[in-house]
Amino acid sequence: MSSDSPRFRAVLDQFVGYTPGKAPSPAAGRTFKLTSNESPYDPLPSVRAVIASAASQVNRYPDNTAAELIDAIATRFDVPPAHVAVGCGSVGIAQQLLEAVGEPGAEVVYAWRSFEAYPYLTDLANATSVPVPLVDARHDLPAMAAAITERTRLIFVCTPNNPTGTAVTGAELTAFLDQVPPDCLVVLDEAYVQYVRDPQVPDGLTVYAGRPNVAVLRTFSKAYGLAGLRVGYLVGHEPVAAAVRKTMLPFTVNSIAQAAAIASLAAEPELLERVELVVKERDRVRHEMRGQGWSVPPTEANFVWLPLADRSAEFVAHCDAAGVSVRPYLPDGVRVTVADPEANDAFLTAAASYPDRV
After folding, report:
1. Which residues on neighbouring strands pair with residue 108, listed in sequence order?
2. pLDDT value at residue 230
3. Which pTM does this prediction carry?
4. What is the mean pLDDT of residues 265-291?
5. Helix H or strand E encompassing 337
6. Whether 198 and 78 share a structural domain
7. N or C: which end of the chain has fewer CB within 10 A?
8. DSSP line for 228-262
9. Looking at residue 222, which CATH number applies to its domain?
10. Cα separation of 238 and 247, whole Å?
11. How far is CA 94 from the centre of its chain?
12. 337 belongs to a structural domain
């Protein structure tokens, strides 16, 4: 039978794509966008110079293999280049991984609430989501282990978890990984790893080395301040990295992004000084929020989480009216990005004037 419009996959009828963090509505005085976990700092002068230079060559295609960038990542983290793959941010690599494992009947396990792209990327890969509820804003790894079946192909462990900020300890992760079958891939999504200060939270790169079914996702968007250029990377054993390369859209990491990422690795000590400023502000914001009477779980990321449940939308509107945009995750809570002191003070002032705290 004919139709009035082209036919598309049935999954799109129920599909809800990613919604980016919105800017605040116009308000008196300056406004502050605390919805997207971006770095509050401009790129370093040395990185801006490289970006400007690379811009003169955008009439040429980028290196599709990103060989120089891969070599720089491999050198920085002392891993074989064959264990590294790159993509359009860590979310782009997550999509590439799901394309590599997804087919009818395949299952993907992840905590929920966690990174909001996991469900729709799993749907697009024609796989089945198996979300496992958080407990006290943390991954319930024993429950995630119990959810594994012979159909499980991939498990996401987002640590620190987006949007709650909580992280998995080394003991918890080891106990979990010991229960995962060797043919099931575990992906440690470490987009916020540079902000971790808890010594009990392991570095995923030390974990992956001895486990062929473990891979690590990281990004240049957060700590490195390159959110607008979209470049991330995976470190995993050679079969995993090779599968990610096969599913990469050609030329997906552009030439400016490659050059900027290489320059950022070279400038890492200076960049990490900025990260330390954010960590100090994070701890200050959480301390002051708790002093105001709010419930704020421990966080190892560059944001804080407010488990406001059915008050989330009201609190977001309250902050918006004060010129501060924060991100709702209905019906669970609100995530607030830690920015510079001025923006954080504006948020704290708005929070202090909200009457119904928890």
Report:
1. 129, 154
2. 94
3. 0.94
4. 96
5. strand 333-337
6. yes
7. N
8. TT--EEEE--HHHHHHHHHTSPTT-S-HHHHHHHH
9. 3.40.640.10
10. 15
11. 10
12. yes
Percent of the chain surpassing pLDDT 90: 89
Give the CA radius of gyration of the chain. Answer: 21
Q: 3-class SS at 173?
A: helix
Question: Hey, CA dihedral for 209, 207, 163, 303, is it positive or negative?
Answer: negative
Structure tokens at 93: 């690599």
Query: At residue 293, what is the residue type?
Result: G
189-243 pLDDT per residue, tens: 999 999 999 999 999 999 999 999 999 999 999 999 999 999 999 999 999 999 9
The token pair at 151 is: 């159909």
Residue span of the structural domain in which 173 resides? 59-266
What tokens were used for 33? 């966008």
Confidence of residue 19 (pLDDT cuts 50, 70, 90): confident
Q: CB neighbours of 89 closer than 8 A, spacing ≥ 6?
A: 219, 221, 230, 231, 232
Q: How many residues does the chain have?
A: 358
What CA–CA distance (Å, rounded) separates 168 from 156?
Answer: 12
pLDDT at 21 (0 to 100): 72
